[in-house]
Amino acid sequence: MAGPQKSSSVYGSDCMLQESKLPGLKKIMNRRNRMNGLTLLDRMPDCSVQAAFFDPQYRGILDRMKYGNEGVSRGRLRSGMEQMSADTVREFLGEMGRVLVPSGTLFLWIDKFHLVDGISGWIEGTCLNAVDMITWDKQRMGMGYRTRRCSEHMVVLQKSPKRAKNVWRDHGIPDVWPEKVEGRNHTHAKPVRLQARLIECVTTGRGAVLDPAAGGYSVLESCKRTGRNFIGCDLR
Known about the structure:
The protein has 236 residues and is α/β, with parallel strands linked by helices. The chain has helices at 37-42, 73-80, 86-99, 112-117, 120-123, 192-202, 218-226; strands spanning 49-54, 100-110, 128-137, 151-159, 176-178, 208-211, 229-232.
């Protein structure tokens, strides 16, 4: 009987299917799990997922602005969410880099303040490299003391070695993506169609997609649409 194949790259012909590398986690795959994301990552083996999404619960805009709606409705939910420190974000990114296969992709959501301030401190010392950025046009007007927020940003990070050929397979994705989220079930709801397109672009077969801070579980829905395996969790 042949032994397991070597996992040299998510895109190599000898890539092991990720389901076989996660036997201890099959019971929590493709479902909503309530746990700390770092606890989940600690249980995961090296080089076991093809792609990952991360929406850190930092509060970059709330730390700089007081809109006056922190006590009501969605404003209360937004301001009440537990904040991640910069050290915690770095710990998440380091662990996510570890569990990604070589040349795997991590999609990191950031707000405009972190876009301006930079995220180099978050990924310094990890195996992750910034290779691109996508702006999500939310098709709705948000808040702002000067310009009104209508977009969010996603930094595309790739685990070493950096590769584009045969890794990023969909060259029709624009760097500004318009998508209105309907029926918002979470204060930080994300665009399912964009995430599904990205998942299909950088993953193959039934490979696992990770989201250790899943929020409204839009990545789970995107995985269902694309036939990929989801593994993720949230504190709530």
